[in-house]
Amino acid sequence: MDMTTGNLAKKIIIFALPVMLSSIIQLLFNACDLVVIGQFSGDNSLAAVGSTGALINLIINMFIGVSVGANVICARAIGNKDMEKAQRCVHTAITFSFIAGIILTIFGIFAARECLILMDTKDECLDKATLYVQIYFGGMIFNMLYNFGSAILRSVGETRKPLYFITAAGIINAGLNLLFVIVFKMDVAGVALATIISQAISAVLVFICLTRKTGYVNLNIKKLRIHGLELKEMIFNGLPAGIQGSLFSISNVFIQKAVNSFNITAIVSGNTASSNVEGFIYQSMNSFYQACISFTSQNFGAKNKKNCKKVLIYCQIFAVLTGVILGGIVLIFKDQFLGFYTNNQEAINYGVQRIVIICTTYYLCGIMDVFVGGMRGLGYSVVPMIVSIMGACVFRIVWIHTIFAANHTLFILYISYPISWLLTSLIHFISYIIVYRKIKFEPDNSNMSIAIATQNNSAC
C-alpha cells in the first residue's frame, strides 16, 4: 500500500480495521483462557491467571518496542524507495526476534515465582500463577516472531493476512482450551499450553508469508543475520517505546499490587474481568496508533510534511470515535460482559466499579497514544517516552503512595487512570507542535531522515 498518496482517511481505515480485528482476536486468546478458567476452574484459578497480565507485559514490552522500531525504519525505507535498506531491516528484525524469544524464555521460566512474590500475589494463587507464567514463556519465541513479522508486514500496508492467521490460531486456541481444561482437567496449565500452540501457528504462518512476499519485505532464510546499522536504528527508534511500555506495565504492577492489598479474591477477579473487557476497547483505539506510526513513517521517508499532519488528525478523530462508541456499548452491557468471566456476583459488582470509570474516559487514552505514534513516525521516540513516563507512570505510582494510601478505596485507585491520560495528552499536544515545527527537509540529503531523528532525540 502506498501511504503517501490518495485518500489518506480511507487508506487509514483500510489499514486499521484488520489491525483492530487482529488485536481483538489476540485478546480473545487471553479472554478465552479467563472465560474457561472462570467458568470451569473457579475464582482462585481466574485470579491466578489474571494476576499475571501486568508481569507478562512488563517483561516482554521492552522487546516488542523494538518491533515498533522495525516498523518505523522499514516503512521509512519504503517511503524513500530504498529496497536494500528495507531488506536489511527485514532480516535483522526476524533474526532479532529469535534471539529475543530465547532470552525471554530463559528469564520467564526461572524468575516467574520471585517476580510474582514481589507483586504480593495472594498465597492461594501463587503456585498456579507461577505455573501459568512458566509455560507461557516457554513459547516466547513464537510470540516474538509473530510481533516482529506483523510489524514488518504493517510497514508495507499488509494487515489482512495477519488477521487471517490470527483468526485461524484463535479458533484453535478456543478448542484447545475446552479440551485441556474441561476434558483433561489441566486447569491453568491447559490454557497456557493452548496459548503457546496458537501462537506457534500464527508465527509460522507469518514467517511463511514473509518468505513468499516479493519486493521490499521479502524474507530469504539464507540471508537471516543481524545488520549492525539497522539494528542500531531499530533499537534507537523502538527501545524508547519498549521502555515506555515496560514502565507503563510497572505502573500497572503497582495498580495490581494495590488491588491485591484489599485481600479480597472477588476484587482481584472483578479487576481481572474488567481489565480484559476494557482491553478490547484499547486495542481497537490502538490500531490507529499503529496506523499513525506506519503512515507517518512512510510520508516522512517520502519527505511529505503536510501529509504527516493530516495522518495525525485523521487518526485522532478515528481513535476518539472508537473509544466513545465502544466505551458506550460496554457501559450499557457491562454486567453481561463481566458475566462471561465469572459467575460470582460480588466479583461482577467490583468489576463494574472499574468499568464505569475507565470506559467513560478511555478516549483520552486513545488521544494520548496517537500523539505518541505521530512523534515516533517523525523520528522522535525519546520525547514521547519521557512525557509518558512522567505524565502517566510516575504520576500513578505517586498517586498510589499518597492519595490512595490516604483514601484506600477502589474509586480513588481507578480514577488515577483518566487523570494521568488527560495530563499526558496535554503535554503530548504541546510536544507534537514543537516537534512538527522543527522538521526541515533537505531534498539532496538521502540520509536526512535518520540524521534528524538522531540529532533531536539525543538532544532530549
Short account of what is shown:
With about 450 residues, the chain is mostly helical.
Written overview of the protein:
With 460 residues, the protein is mainly α. The protein has one domain. The chain is built from 18 helices and no strands.
Q: How many helix segments?
A: 18
Percent in helix: over 70%
Query: What does the largest sheet look like?
Result: none
Share of β-strand residues: under 5%
Radius of gyration: 21 Å
Low-confidence residue ranges: 444-460
Order of helices and strands: HHHHHHHHHHHHHHHHHH
The number of strands is 0
Structural class: mainly alpha
Shape: globular
The average pLDDT is 90
- Distance between the terminal alpha carbons, to the nearest Å? 33 Å
* Count of distinct structural domains: 1
Task: Name the features.
460 residues; mainly alpha; 18 helices; disordered C terminus
Secondary structure blueprint with pairings:
Elements: H1 8-40, H2 43-50, H3 53-79, H4 83-118, H5 123-138, H6 140-155, H7 160-183, H8 187-212, H9 228-260, H10 265-301, H11 305-332, H12 334-339, H13 345-359, H14 363-377, H15 382-406, H16 410-414, H17 416-438, H18 448-459
